[in-house]
Amino acid sequence: MAHWLFKSEPETWSWQQQLAKGAPEEWHGVRNYQARNNMRAMQLGELGFFYHSVQEKRIMGIVKVVALAHPDSTALVPGEKVVWECVDIEAVKPLPKPVGLDEIKAEPDLAGMVLVNNSRLSVQPVSDGEWAKICAMGGL
DNA sequence: GCCAACGTTGGC
DNA sequence: GCCAACGTTGGC
């Protein structure tokens, strides 16, 4: 199974909110084709990291894909073709030790991460090796 | 607050 | 179809 990384500015939607909700949340608002295509590729039950950008810059926890890509309800224009889609995700568990961007950059094994090389992409693939490494760094 | 990187738009 | 101009994102 593939792994992913979801970025969010905590001011807009935070890990704390996601965790407190305890129910599926539509990952709407993505207006980037690459990010959308990543969501289209997701399978039910696949896991992803939840990353806080801008203010905190760290990976907070793990989420699970609970609904396949479907039209983004915030981007629907009646009578027009659907362009933007999103998946639904649910919080699984927090990382005991959130992993900061500075720690990721300091780790040679993670130098190839999309987060490091294309920080603007809001929904990213994470390789199995990167996934395992970050889980370990996060205390799991 | 600044700026680099990236994506999108629109004129040609 | 190319490319300059512009807007946005996100790290510093």
Tell me the total number of β-strands: 6
Spatial sequence of strands, sheet with the most strands:
2-5-4-3-1-6
Rg (CA only): 15 Å
Alpha carbon gap, first and last residue: 19 Å
The helix-strand sequence is: EHEHEEEHHEH
How many distinct helices?
5
Structure described in brief:
This protein is of the alpha+beta class and 140 residues long.
Question: Would you kindly provide a written description of the structure presented here, covering whatever features stand out?
Answer:
The protein has five helices and six strands, in the order E-H-E-H-E-E-E-H-H-E-H. The chain has helices at residues 15-21, 33-40, 101-105, 114-117, 128-137; strands at 3-8, 25-26, 47-52, 58-71, 85-100, 123-126. The two termini are 19 Å apart. The mean pLDDT is 94. The chain binds a DNA duplex (12 and 12 nucleotides) through residues 7, 9, 32-33, 53-54, 57, 101, 118-122.
